[in-house]
Amino acid sequence: MTRAVAFSSLLREENKMTKFEELELKEEIQKSLRELGFDNAFPIQEAVIPVLLTGRDVVGQAHTGSGKTAAFALSMLQEIQPKKGIQGLIMAPTRELAMQITGEIKKFGKYTGIRTATVYGGQGMGIQLDAFARGVEILVATPGRLIDHLKRGSIDLNDVTHVVLDEADTMLDMGFIDDIQFILDLAPEHKIMSLFSATMPTEILRLSEEYLKNPKQFLLDADDLSGEGIDQSFLVLKDRDKFQHLVDFIKKTKGQTIVFCSTKYRTRDVAKFLHREKFVAVAIEGDMSQHRREQSMSKFRSGKADILVATDVASRGIDVPQVALVVNYDVPNQEMTYFHRIGRTARAGAEGRAITLVSYSSVGDWNVIKRQIKVKLTDLNEVMGIKVSIPDPLKRVVSPRRFGSNRGGNFRGSRSGGFNRNSGGRRNSRDDRRGKRRYGDRSRQGGYGHGHGRS
Question: The domain at 5-224 falls in which architecture?
């Protein structure tokens, strides 16, 4: 593969910032960008857009908040023509992220006449079929629901010229790798592809080698996965003392707060406690209906709610510039989850703070994560004079885990509100059989979508 370009080196060249008007985007797009107040392109946009516009594939190692959505969306909007069928396909791991991407594309493409639709599990098929009937040029989809439509024959990919895989490592962790391959095999051979992932595990590299043609790589330096630019701190304490400290931290914060919990039950409890303290808080967790989740996110995005309490189902689909504080109420169960959580603050160069509340039983897990953080951490126990007294049975050593590759993470554990690979969240067996007859059986790991992936 070609030599990779590091975004962080571009970031340091502040005097060479490129304006969007220099990227030769058509006037309809430029008009939207001016209305949105977009002037200078972020490094990932400056690097990726010209490459995609030449027709070359791209692999980008980029974390959330780096501006990658605009990088692939603007390139797509430049090339796609109205009223000529589905030409752009974007796959995302969760419904929240898919909806966020759609919202951004609609803003960028306001004057282009290009229509965008979102398909994901949990929303009625009728709504999505109505959107198809009106005409769609760009489709943003979670893999599970996309395969549902492909099996029904309600859409086809014959006219697709642009394909994007966003958050590819998360789709891998959620068990979507076979689904992605199945979908890509149905797409035309001649197309422009881009793949974006915060980490590059072996399976993702294999996927890019199989489906992308001579892609240009843009990779982050290791330091860029450290949460640089975010004021990070931690507090080791007894679990029963967490809530009062959470309240104190929130009261001292100007701006919105996101609180991440490890399970749906914990999420509900923390939200209830905050309501009792007269905070305006909303919650998102896996067992909520899609309608309630959208209501909660709408209140938070509009500023009607100051606090969002969430499981990791929401850690990849929240783009709210006003988030000033992220609190890890529970230590995440793998390293990359930590970086995706704290990436909800300090969006697009803004300032932000992240605090992790470490219960005595989670000190070992926290030490594993700390080794991956390259910036200075503030020890709030020292600052606040809170002594740590961990009982001997809890002074255990946690075995090292492969960085960024937890295949049993919060998206799938039943305690976090997701579906387990072998749970009852599988597809309708009749649909599976029909899909196998029509397309052949690609279900090497238990069926299209594996149930838990119906985001």
Answer: 3-Layer(aba) Sandwich (3.40)
Q: In sequence order, which ranges of 198-319 are alpha helices (DSSP H)? A: 202-211, 242-251, 264-276, 290-301
Q: In 277-346, where does DSSP find H-type helix?
A: 290-301, 335-342
The torsion angle over the Cα atoms of residues 334, 339, 342 and 345, rounded to 10 degrees, is -160
Residue 125 clears pLDDT 80, i.e. is over it: yes
Q: How far is CA 358 from CA 202, 369, 372, 451, in A?
A: 31, 12, 16, 33
Helix (H, G, I), strand (E, B) or coil at 247: helix
Q: What is the pLDDT of residue 348?
A: 57
State residue 257 phi and psi, 5-degree precision: -130, 140
Average pLDDT over residues 388-393: 73
Q: Among 6-15, 47-56, 91-100, whose mean pLDDT is lowest?
A: 6-15
β 192-197/116-119 pair status = unpaired
Asked if residue 281 lies in contact with residue 247, where contact means CB atoms within 8 angstroms, the answer is no
Q: Kind of pairing, strands 5-6 and 216-219? A: parallel
Task: Match 């703070």 to its residue by tokens.
Answer: 353
d(CA 293, CA 295): 5
Cα atoms found within 13 Å of the Cα of residue 436, Cβ hemisphere only: 13
Instruction: Quote the CA–CA distance of 61 and 374 in Å, as a whole number.
Output: 18
The Cα–Cα gap between 397 and 419 comes to 29
In our burial notation (b when 16+ CB lie closer than 10 A, e otherwise), range 361-380 reads ebbebbebbeebbeeeeeeb
Q: Residue 147: name the closest of 195, 185, 99, 112 by CA.
A: 185
Please give the single-letter amino acid code of residue 156: D
180: which 2 tokens?
């992605």
- Of 397 and 344, the structure prediction assigns the larger pLDDT to 344
Query: Which two tokens mark 267?
Result: 């999420």
Cα distance between residue 455 and residue 453, in whole Å: 5
Say which CATH architecture domain 227-394 belongs to: 3-Layer(aba) Sandwich (3.40)
Helices 95-108, 290-301: inter-axial angle, 10-degree rounding? 50
Q: Tell me how far apart the alpha carbons of residues 295 and 153 are, in angstroms, rounded to a whole number.
A: 31
Whole-number pLDDT of residue 411: 32
Measured in degrees and rounded to the nearest 5, phi and psi for residue 173 equal -60, -30
Closest C-alpha to 384, from 166, 233, 159: 233
Read off the pLDDT of residues 73-99 as tens digits, 9 standing for 90 and up.
999 999 999 999 999 999 999 888 899
Which residues are bridge partners to 310 per DSSP?
260, 284
Give tens-digit pLDDT for 155-183: 999 999 999 999 998 898 888 999 999 99
Which segments of the chain belong to CATH 3.40.50.300?
A: 5-224, 227-394
